[in-house]
Amino acid sequence: MPHIAVVPGDGIGNEVIAEGLRVLGAVAPDVTWETFDLGAERYLRDGTTMPPEVMRRWREDFDAVYLGALGDPRVPSNVHARDILLGARFQLDLYINFRPVRLLDSRTCPLKDKAPEDIDFVVFRENTEGLYTGIGGQFKRDTDDEVAIEQEMNTRKGVERIVRAAFAWARQHGKRRVCMSDKANAMRHGHDLWQRVFKAVAADYPEIEARHLYVDVLTMQMVLAPEQFDVIVTNNLFGDIVTDLGAALQGGIGLAASGNLNPGVAALFEPVHGSAPDIAGKGIANPLAAVLSAGMLLGHLGRPQVERRIQDAVQACLRDGRVTRELGGTLTTREVGDAVLDSLGGV
Ligand code: NAD
Ligand code: IPM
Ligand code: MN
């Protein structure tokens, strides 16, 4: 019986994960979970961010982690989010941040004349290195001579495994195009490594078109002609940025789901959005990204047909306008959860 570790986390994390769990319980009644009290409240209460014992248990005792969001204005250093979320990504070595960009209903797309078939690609975001490792330092802090250095780490192994994962996924899913995006014209060491590794790995996938775009041009092309993409592979920071743009193409950050993966080792599923302090506690957050992330989690547990059912139910809610206000609806978070459960009955 699959066993899931759940971290609702901060802000709207709690609200959207509650709906995700209702859906999960309905479609997979055999799945059990344990909820972990981790996040800003816990940190402010007793100083705990991420106990090493919990990380060990996530690795050994659970089939997947399901996380809401972390981030709270009362913890400006964001230390808890770094220890919990980035901690899990690094320590569980979840090197693939898999972020599908899929338009489920044309009416939620901000671009004119785009249909679901025009916006259907996946971003493979490198998730364990790049500019996220915290390597660097501050010197002469709070003086006029202050120096702050943030170093970007790119390893051959790290770049190769994410690029290979992107090509392998494309091949497995009959996709024709992989686009690697970097900034090699300005970043001549690390991104030159990306260029060389990309060319070498692409040679193993001759049937797939391997294309390169600098990240500035990529953002423009994602807006102008998103239909040209099947798979995008990029580094940690660029992947963070372009997947919020991708979320907007789908109809907003409230619809974007993600999986942090290391095939065969561990996985963590979460909405792409954050804790949204501006709307937290109001019951108006869109839970569909969390619901779709629960769907991805079940797909990962070997239940693709259940994942498909959840996607269909979400699509039905969008079609019927049973959505929260940022999508033009009137429903609360809880009512959207009800609508998904209703639709599941009919799909
Ligand atoms: P955010 O994604 O939380 O919010 C950006 C905007 O989108 C806000 O206006 C918010 O109201 C809206 N929004 C987000 N999710 C929504 C939803 N489900 N329904 C409706 N509207 C939604 O980004 P932010 O404001 O930059 O970050 C807030 C905090 O969350 C920060 O502390 C940040 O570090 C953290 N964060 C955490 C994660 C994570 O844990 N995975 C991801 C992103 C940001
Ligand atoms: C995300 C978030 C995180 C990231 C933050 C909270 C560190 O924005 O998962 O997209 O940048 O990876
Ligand atoms: Mn982000």
Structure description:
The chain has 347 residues and is an alpha/beta fold. The protein contains eleven helices and twelve strands. It has helices at 12-27, 40-46, 52-61, 79-91, 156-172, 190-202, 215-224, 236-250, 288-300, 304-319, 333-346; strands at 3-9, 32-35, 64-69, 96-102, 120-126, 136-139, 147-150, 177-182, 209-214, 231-234, 257-262, 266-271. The strands form two sheets. Strands 2-1-3-12-11-4-5-10-8-9 form a ten-stranded mixed sheet, with helices on both faces. Strand 8, helix 6 (190-202) and strand 9 (209-214) form a beta-alpha-beta unit. Helix 1 (12-27) packs across helix 9, helix 7 runs parallel beside helix 8 and helix 10 packs across helix 11 (333-346). The longest helix is centred in the middle third of the chain and has 17 residues, at 156-172. The radius of gyration is 20 Å and the shape is globular. It starts with a strand and ends with a helix. Bound molecules: nicotinamide-adenine-dinucleotide, 3-isopropylmalic acid (IPM) and manganese (II) ion. Residues 12, 16, 69-71, 78, 81, 85, 253-254, 270, 273-279, 285-286, 289, 326 line the site of nicotinamide-adenine-dinucleotide.
